[in-house]
């Protein structure tokens, strides 16, 4: 077995079964700074978030990653811009299978999330999707294709339901002590 793969699997196991349950955000951040591909200044990762191959996950500055979210970095990368809010129990996936493949072949791609994106509770982002700056993904939506900047999408599959204000200047700061 490849030693790097074994090390990555061990790092994921240790975080996902031990560190993610630690009520100390400081200890979780220390682990994540050494393991993730990038953890931007002021980014908050709350308890019980799960990461599959942290090396391919890159968070921008001042992201709020809420309780119990899942990030699949097994084969492709996940990248977020700055001031991104990802709701509780959201799932961002970058690898799946081709349903037409007779050998159940892998299919996937990088997931790119722009600046000032708001992803709602239990939303699912599928492999290869790009979400433009300022976009909003409503709670429980399933995003199967790219979302244009400043577009609000909802549903399964997610469809455009509106436009968002383009004059976004906020900077997120949510770093609760025990979450």
User: What coarse outline follows from CA principal-axis ratios?
Assistant: globular
What low-confidence regions span 5 or more consecutive residues with pLDDT below 50?
none
The helix/strand class is alpha/beta
pLDDT averaged over residues: 95
- H/E series, N to C? HHEEEEEEEEEEEEEEEEEEE
Q: How would you classify the quaternary structure?
A: single chain
In which range does the helix fraction lie? 10-25%
What is the topology, as strand order, of the major beta sheet?
2-5-8-13-16-18-19
Please tell me how large the radius of gyration is. Answer: 16 Å
Q: Strand fraction band?
A: 25-35%
| Number of separate strands | 19
First CA to last CA: what distance?
Answer: 36 Å
Molecular structure report:
By secondary structure, the protein is α/β, with parallel strands linked by helices. The protein is built from 2 helices and 19 strands. The chain has helices at 3-17, 25-35, and strands spanning 38-39, 44-45, 50-52, 57-59, 64-65, 70-72, 78-80, 85-86, 91-92, 95-97, 106-108, 111-113, 118-119, 124-125, 130-131, 136-137, 142-143, 151-154, 159-163. The strands form 4 sheets. A 7-stranded mixed beta sheet has the order 2-5-8-13-16-18-19. Strand 10 and strand 11 (106-108) form a beta hairpin. It is globular, with a radius of gyration of 16 Å. It starts with a helix and ends in a 16-residue tail after the last strand.
